[in-house]
User: Fold Host attachment protein from Hyphococcus luteus.
Amino acid sequence: MRDLADQITWVVVADGEKALIFVNDDTPEQPFLNVVSKEKMENPPSREQAANRPGRFNDAGAGGAQRSAVADTDWHEFEKERFEKGFAETLNKAAKKNAFDKLVLFAPPQALGRLRKELHKEAQDRLVFTVDNDLTNHPVDEIEKHLARAYKEEFAGEDLV
Assistant:
């Protein structure tokens, strides 16, 4: 691990379709974020991804007169989960290569939960804090403000640099 003054903090802003990795080149209280990586996936709505209409089956005991629909796969959600799993693997590989010392995650609650679940121990050990907020379509200066505010709320009175 690097000396405290030389530590690298990655700030990740993600949802199920887009992920941005920033490096913080200043302090958490006054962040200055620079883009390290951008990943984006085209993910049309489920109705555009499904090949067929949802299936139907005859209900037992109704003499075949009553039919029920079978729930169709939510392909849009499936692709989000696949993207998040792949992105978590990107973070895992970077952690194993010591590309960062500290990690901060901003993501909507569902995406945040899935990302955290997929992080290996090397990445989890570097996770400083998480914020359940979708900032993927916000400008960098707003993300910096959110980071500073979240840091102050999370570590009021502590010195973590």
Strands lie at 9-14, 18-24, 33-40, 56-58, 67-69, 102-107, 127-132.
